[in-house]
Amino acid sequence: MAELMSMATMLLFLLLITQFSITTAQRNDSLISLGSSLSPGTNKSYWLSNSGQFAFGFYQQGDGFAVGIWFEKMEEKTVVWTAKRDDPPLPQDTTLLLSGDGRLFLQDEQGRQEHISNASQLAASASMLDSGNFVLYNSNSTIIWQSFDSPTDTLLPGQRLVPQEGRNRLISSVSETNHSSGRFQLVMQSDGNLVQYPVLSIGLLPSHHYWNTETYKAGDNVTLNLDPNGWLYLLNSTGSNIKNISDAGRSHLGKNVLYRMIIDVNGLLRLYSHSMVQNDDWVVEWVSTNNLCDPTGLCGLNSYCDLNGQGPYCVCLPGFDFVDQDQKGLGCERNSSTYGCGTKNDERVTFEELTGIAWEENSYSVVSLDNKNACLEECSRDCNCEIALFQNQQCSKKKIPLQFGKTTQGIVLITTIIKVHSGEVGARKGRNEHGRTGILISGIAISTFGLIALVVSGILVCRFRMWEYKRIGNHGSNKFLEDVTLRPYAYAELEKATNGFTDQRLERVIADGEREFRNEMKVIGKTHHKNLVKLLGYCHEGTSRLLVYEYMTNGSLADFLFRSETKPTWEERNGIVLNIAKGILYLHEECETQIIHCDIKPENILMDEQNCAKIADFGLAKLLMPDQSRTYTGFRGTRGYVAPEWHRNMPITVQADVYSFGIVLLEIVCCRRSVEMDVPEDKVILANWVYDCFLDGELDKLVEDEDAEKIEVEKMMKLGLWCIQEEPSVRPSMKKVCLMMEGTIEVPPPPNPTSSVSIVQIE
Ligand SMILES: *[C@@H]1O[C@H](CO)[C@@H](O)[C@H](O)[C@H]1NC(C)=O
Ligand SMILES: *[C@@H]1O[C@H](CO)[C@@H](O)[C@H](O)[C@H]1NC(C)=O
Ligand SMILES: *[C@@H]1O[C@H](CO)[C@@H](O)[C@H](O)[C@H]1NC(C)=O
Ligand SMILES: *[C@@H]1O[C@H](CO)[C@@H](O)[C@H](O)[C@H]1NC(C)=O
Ligand SMILES: *[C@@H]1O[C@H](CO)[C@@H](O)[C@H](O)[C@H]1NC(C)=O
Ligand SMILES: *[C@@H]1O[C@H](CO)[C@@H](O)[C@H](O)[C@H]1NC(C)=O
Ligand SMILES: *[C@@H]1O[C@H](CO)[C@@H](O)[C@H](O)[C@H]1NC(C)=O
Ligand SMILES: *[C@@H]1O[C@H](CO)[C@@H](O)[C@H](O)[C@H]1NC(C)=O
Ligand SMILES: *[C@@H]1O[C@H](CO)[C@@H](O)[C@H](O)[C@H]1NC(C)=O
């Protein structure tokens, strides 16, 4: 049935395409004849398309005019194209001419001309088509120039981006009202990948990308297409659809719907629809990311993007002030010029810290150090060091300026240490009030809850990781205490117990909103299973929101598997897999509120004294209401472990956890990371290698010289391959996984899971 439906959709789509080209071929349009002209401010300032939907001509820009194309029938005239967008506004006395000899140009009062089109032939007529394409025809009615071939920030149905200079990118606008080239671009690359980058004046690197379709192997001549039903997809050079980027529009079904895709001022791709019947505003059908801080370089030098509250906001580093208070995107500079190597005035130097902010990788020196304080010492001894990042026992020293700062959504704790020169701290007083006080006690980072954004269903508690508690009002505190039957801790008590929160295994977490904090506490507080890390208590004092978890002596599974000197035995590994499976089964099926963990990976599994594995970090977890089995949500989780449906804007079900579990299972069984770079090419991606070995009947090769029974090894590998199937419904439930592991059910031979398992080349 579903297949029939999509067949029908495809057919409809083909029909529409065909119809579209016929329309063009028959030139069902109002022709503009040679000798016509337009001028702003008169009653002949634009030409309309046949249906009156689109207009080509002069529109107001700043205190002058620009030439462009816009939706004319709407109350809010939406501009979709601008000629010579980076030229200054045109004065009132400008004329646009389609001259008698077939050229299209602007002429000012002094008679100076500037060409709009660079067609190689002379035109015989022009037309504003109903598709939004302004075209010039020669005497044989062949299109010799069209606005669709020089896109600005918008793609209209029927228009495509092709990997050819001039036609391969959209560049965002400066602002909603200024259509000059802005700061972000979408590029249809010749390697087949569609990628978003910042527009930088110098030195664009692949690592600056912030979104891509991961089609870098699709070869030459891949094109981005938008069809009249709002489908956004990539075609390869032979015309096969290789990637659906957005579904057909959902908000407005039926006919008389207009679509446009735009790279917006802040760098996100958005597909909009507009119903001509209801004649309402544009509705967002699809957006490339829900994290508004994703676009690289949204904030300027020495500042970082923060989602706190209604974000995104640009925040200056401590000791820095905005270059321009009114334009916070322009970055920050030191609030003091008296510093630097060589200036030997005995200024006082202090250090400030930020957590959870990622920066461009441009360190001049990286040192392995045990802890943050050693990193701070290292930086203080080095007069070139102005900023140091501490992460994963690595201390990276940097000079300013820093760029591309944004709050991270990953679990790895990054500390930014900033050298602050005397007299600067005072200027940043406001920062601490912002409340970087949330701290997590126990084994590992957990939880935090973001603002409720883009949630389809109103009953969902939707959260995503953020690193700052917002200041929370007093209301509701007492109620909160009644709701939770956990031990309350005093802030001072925790501070003492953790040595002033200096312990490496603490993580600061920050959240937004009392309600989410309470919900998390209630739900996680009620879970009770031997394979879940136990929540013992909380601290709810002033602006502090801390969660206290049981202490897990043996660290994380990642340490246990990949970093310890002796490999755990086959037996132990088997036990760990079963523990994890049972923990997830409990979350999925056995507790009161069904929970999708969303971030199963070795870093989030902790080992107790007896090496029993327990799942931790519910920071990303989603809670489902009893009658709900799926949810739409913004991206969460960790690359490498997340199920393919996260990338596809598909509903997320418990099967997403099954996928992550499958990846972790293969890692545990093979005692290696799912992606390793320093191995032969065919072994880089563990899942692919395992499937190759499975096809060759050589699964035992994966667990060299170990006293594991071949048949046991095969069972685990096959189970892992089942769990990582691209199609969520093909993956077994956790219940079934447990039964298979225990031998109650046979594990049948798995199909090929791998078409979606790949890494992003350009990282
Ligand atoms: C041409 O446009 C008119 C008005 O929009 C429409 O009624 C007519 O069906 C169109 N003809 C063709 C062949 O598309
Ligand atoms: C402008 O429109 C008005 C009224 O529609 C008409 O009287 C006038 O002649 C027009 N002017 C030109 C230059 O076409
Ligand atoms: C639009 O922005 C550009 C770049 O910031 C600027 O140079 C130009 O003056 C602006 N145009 C208007 C009409 O404000
Ligand atoms: C017109 O401009 C486009 C984009 O700048 C370029 O690719 C094309 O070759 C030009 N055509 C002519 C005839 O100069
Ligand atoms: C129009 O078509 C004729 C015949 O195909 C050809 O000889 C002529 O050069 C074409 N004219 C233009 C302007 O392309
Ligand atoms: C790429 O595709 C365009 C349009 O489909 C076609 O005209 C062109 O010849 C193709 N180029 C290559 C190198 O395949
Ligand atoms: C285009 O995609 C189809 C389907 O994935 C594939 O069979 C074909 O080989 C691809 N063409 C090229 C040139 O890569
Ligand atoms: C894109 O979606 C259509 C319609 O659902 C489907 O038939 C097609 O297989 C999809 N293509 C890819 C590459 O997923
Ligand atoms: C730096 O901050 C201090 C304290 O707010 C202020 O008095 C001083 O003017 C600032 N210096 C500069 C150069 O902006």
UniProtKB/TrEMBL annotation:
Any matching Pfam family:
B_lectin
Residue limits of the Bulb-type lectin domain?
A: 29-149
Is-annotated flag, keyword Glycoprotein?
Answer: yes
Q: Where is the signal peptide?
A: 1-25
Gene3D superfamilies xrefs = Bulb-type lectin domain (2.90.10.10), Phosphorylase Kinase, domain 1 (3.30.200.20), Transferase(Phosphotransferase) domain 1 (1.10.510.10)
Q: Which GO terms describe its biological process?
A: recognition of pollen
Give the main EC class: transferase
UniProt keyword annotation of Iron-sulfur present? no
What stretches pass through the bilayer? 439-462
Keywords attached to this entry: ATP-binding, Disulfide bond, EGF-like domain, Glycoprotein, Kinase, Membrane, Nucleotide-binding, Receptor, Serine/threonine-protein kinase, Signal, Transferase, Transmembrane, Transmembrane helix
Q: Which GO terms describe its molecular function?
A: ATP binding; protein serine/threonine kinase activity
User: Which residue ranges does the record assign to the Protein kinase domain?
Assistant: 466-745
SMART domains assigned: B_lectin, S_TKc
Q: Which GO terms describe its cellular component?
A: membrane
Give the catalytic activity. Answer: L-threonyl-[protein] + ATP = O-phospho-L-threonyl-[protein] + ADP + H(+); L-seryl-[protein] + ATP = O-phospho-L-seryl-[protein] + ADP + H(+)
Family indicated by similarity: Belongs to the protein kinase superfamily. Ser/Thr protein kinase family.
* Protein name according to UniProt: Receptor-like serine/threonine-protein kinase
Q: Which organism is it from?
A: Ficus carica
